[in-house]
């Protein structure tokens, strides 16, 4: 790879590639319908989130809600199919849900305002594709990596040391997510498929295919509140 750039230039090229600063920064809420496949099951779901640190995901099997998980401010909750009341998510589970909000709604260039730090690392070539690598140091000390394709300027990979489902099995591993099938939605370029691979085993542990996306929807006042 011959391109030598600073962090600001890489971020600027990335933001321009996905739609520009105005489009990225006016995204304040999102609603995503998806199909999710793991080695032992396949389900549908609806993911909703806002920039007010709120999110909710409802998982459906054969059209019936079997699980819900949410964050409303600083606390997460989850509700299984036959539960009458919700229970709190663990600190690790809540943190994972909050990270998802940042991934879905905030541009990389916006993350330092939330107390996180971005560092441009050594460039890498993976599967004959050149990447600029950005290390994201979260305010709580955790880290993640974003891989920006040097030709398209899109984030096509990410890596994190984490558990896939912290409240089911807290065992951490190195998860790499591959993003593909980028499509424009109201001026914003977004991936319609992501595949998570456990780099320790090489196993594909989760594939998510987006079916619908709505940008900037509104939600009822109590939508994210725990039942």
Please describe the structure with a list of short key phrases separated by commas or semicolons.
227 residues, outer membrane lipoprotein receptor (LolB), chain A, 3 helices, 14 strands, 14% helix
Produce a short descriptive summary.
The chain has three helices and 14 strands. By secondary structure, it is mainly β.
Oligomer: single chain
% residues in beta strands: over 45%
Shape: globular
Secondary-structure-based class equals mainly beta
Q: Using the coordinates shown, work out and report the CATH topology.
A: outer membrane lipoprotein receptor (LolB), chain A
- The tally of beta strands, per DSSP, is 14
Largest sheet: 14 strands, antiparallel
CATH class: Mainly Beta
Write down the overall mean pLDDT: 95
Distance between the termini: 52 Å
Counted by DSSP, the helix tally is 3
Q: What is the CATH superfamily label?
A: Lipoprotein localisation LolA/LolB/LppX
CA gyration radius, whole angstroms? 17 Å
Q: From N to C, what is the helix and strand string?
A: HHEEEEEEHEEEEEEEE
Low-confidence stretches: none
Write the layout of secondary structure elements.
Blueprint: H1 7-18, H2 21-25, E1 29-38, E2 41-50, E3 54-61, E4 64-72, E5 75-80, E6 87-88, H3 91-105, E7 117-120, E8 124-126, E9 129-137, E10 143-149, E11 155-162, E12 173-185, E13 188-198, E14 203-215
Antiparallel strand pairs: 1-2, 1-14, 2-3, 3-4, 4-5, 5-6, 7-9, 8-9, 9-10, 10-11, 11-12, 12-13, 13-14
Task: Describe the fold and architecture.
There is one protein chain. By secondary structure, this protein is mainly beta. It has a single domain (7-215), classed as Lipoprotein localisation LolA/LolB/LppX (outer membrane lipoprotein receptor (LolB), chain A, Clam), CATH 2.50.20. The protein has three helices and 14 strands. Strands 1, 2, 3, 4, 5, 6, 7, 8, 9, 10, 11, 12, 13 and 14 form a 14-stranded antiparallel sheet that branches. The longest helix is centred in the middle third of the chain and has 15 residues, at 91-105. It is globular. The mean pLDDT is 95.
């Amino acid at each position: 790879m011959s391109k030598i750039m600073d962090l600001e230039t890489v971020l600027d090229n990335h933001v321009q590639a996905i739609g520009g600063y105005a489009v990225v920064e006016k995204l304040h809420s999102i609603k995503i319908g998806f199909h999710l496949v793991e080695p032992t099951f396949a389900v549908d779901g609806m993911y909703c989130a806002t920039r007010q640190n709120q999110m909710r995901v409802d998982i459906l099997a054969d059209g019936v809600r079997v699980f819900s998980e949410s964050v409303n401010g600083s606390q997460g909750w989850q509700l299984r199919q036959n539960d009458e009341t919700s229970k709190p998510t663990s600190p690790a589970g809540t943190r994972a849900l909050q990270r998802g909000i940042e991934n879905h709604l905030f541009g990389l260039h916006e993350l330092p305002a939330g107390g996180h730090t971005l560092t441009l690392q050594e460039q890498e070539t993976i599967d004959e594709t050149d990447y600029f690598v950005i290390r994201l140091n979260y305010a709580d000390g955790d880290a993640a990596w974003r891989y920006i394709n040097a030709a398209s300027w899109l984030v096509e990979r990410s890596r994190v040391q984490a558990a896939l489902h912290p409240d089911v099995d807290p065992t951490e591993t190195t998860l790499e997510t591959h993003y593909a099938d980028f499509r424009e939605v109201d001026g914003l370029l977004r991936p319609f498929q992501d595949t998570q691979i456990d780099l320790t085993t090489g196993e594909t542990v989760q594939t998510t295919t987006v079916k619908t996306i709505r940008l900037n929807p509104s939600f009822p006042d109590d939508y994210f509140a725990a039942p």
